[in-house]
Amino acid sequence: MPIVPVQFGPDSGPARSTNASAGGLENCFAEVAPDSKTPFTIYSTPGLLEFADTGNSLGCRGGVVVNEETFYVVFGETLYKITSGGAVTTIGTLTGTDNVSMAYNKASPFEVAIAANGMAYILSSDVITAIADGDLDPNPIAVTYLDGYFVWYYATGNMQQSAINDGTSYGALEFANAEARQDKSRAGGVLADRLINFGASSVEFFYNAAPPEGFSFAPQPGATINRGILGRFCWAEFDNSVSWIDQNGKVVRSEGTIGRVISTPQIELDIQAAITAQQQTDIVVSTWTIAGHEMLQIWAPEWCWIYDASIQKWFRRKSQDRDTWAGKHVFHVFDKTIVGDAEDGILHEQSDNAYGESGKRLIRSMVSNYVDAGPGRVRHNALFIDIETGVGDAEDTDAEDVNPEIIVSWSDDGGHTYTGNRQISIGEQGDYNLRLRINRLGMSRDKGRVYKIDFSAARPYAFLGAYADVTGGTP
Asked: Fewer CB within 10 A of the end CB, N or C, for the chain?
C-alpha cells in the first residue's frame, strides 16, 4: 500500500478545464519556511474587525490618507473624515457612483484634490468646493500629486498641473500631452519621482524638467512601456515597481521598459469575463502587507485575486455569502490596514488576531492537485493530514470554536462535484498530539481525484501537508 503525497498549493489557479487542474487556495496563502519539515506551510489570511460604521448603505468609492491623524473616505455620495479611534465626521457630498481619485498637497492647511464623476473638487479645512478656475479643463479622469503640483489627467491624453501647492489656481499654458503614442489616457499616477501616464496602448513616464514656464514635467527618454492599461483604477505601486492590468487583460509589473506578465490563465479568464460583463471600470488594484508578505490585490465584483510577491503565487479571497471579498479599497493608516467595504458603509481593520470577518465566518478552502490521474482504478484507503492541532478556544461559547473541525470532501469527476464531507476535529485547546486520519475513502477512476479541505472556525489555521494511502493506480 503506497503512501503518496497530496499536494495543496502553493499554486492557486485551476486550468481552463478543471479536468486538467482543479487546485487552488481561497482565504489562505503559502509561506516558505527554511529548514521546515515541508517545503511550505499554508496559513489563513487575516480576519476583519469592524473599525468604523459610517451609517451609509452604499459601498466604498475610494479615499486618501493624508497623515496618521487625517483620513478621508467616500461611501456612496458622501465624503467622511475618520479618526484613529474610528469616529466618523460627515464632510460633504460627491455625486455619482464611480470610484474616486484623490490626492493631497503640502499647502498649509493641506488641500485634497478629488476627481469624481467628471468633476474636479478641492477640499480645504474640511470644506469641499468645485474648482472654479476656468483654465482647468473639465471632465478629469484622475488626479495625483508630485513635487508641489496637483496633476489632472484627461481621456484626451492631456495632463494639467496646478500652481505649486495651490489646487485652486491654474495657468493656461501649464499642460502637456502624452507623446509616445497617439493613444488616449486611461489612468494616471506616480512611481517614486516620476509621473505616469497610462494610455490605451502605452505607459509613459515623465520627470520634473523644471522649465522656466509651462508644464513642469517632460517625457523621460527611453522610458515608455508598450502596454496599455485596462481601466482607471487598474494599477498600484507594488514591490518597488508598478503593477497594472494591461489592455489585453493580463496583469503585468514594470521591469525597466518592459511589462512582465505575472498573471495566470485563470486570472486572465476572470478578467476577460469582467470585460465581457462591462465591469472593467469597477476593477480596483491595491496593495497590503501581512507578516512580511507584500500582496497585490485585484478586486472585481465577482472575484478577488491576490498575488504574493514573496513566493510569486496567487490565491483567491472571498467573503461569506458574497461572490467576492468585502475589501474593495485598501488603506494604510493609523498603523493599521483598513479596508472599505464594497457593499455598505463599513470600514474594517484587517488583523492577524482576527479569525472571522466582522461577525461573519472566514471560510478557508484548499483544493489539491490530482492524485494518480490515469486509466487505472485507485482505491483510497486513508488520508493523513498534517495540520496544527489543539487550537480550540476553551473559553469560547461557540462549539465550532471550542472544538474546531475541518471538512474533507473529494471529487472524482474532474473537480465538478464533490462528495464525502467528512468532519474531523483538529483538537480542543491543548490537544497537540491529535492524529488526523480518515479511512475508507472509496475508489477513483480514470479522471483521478482531488481533495478539498474547508475550515471555518474562528481559530488559527496552519496546514503542513497531506498523504494518501492508495492501492492500484496507472498500469
From this structure: C
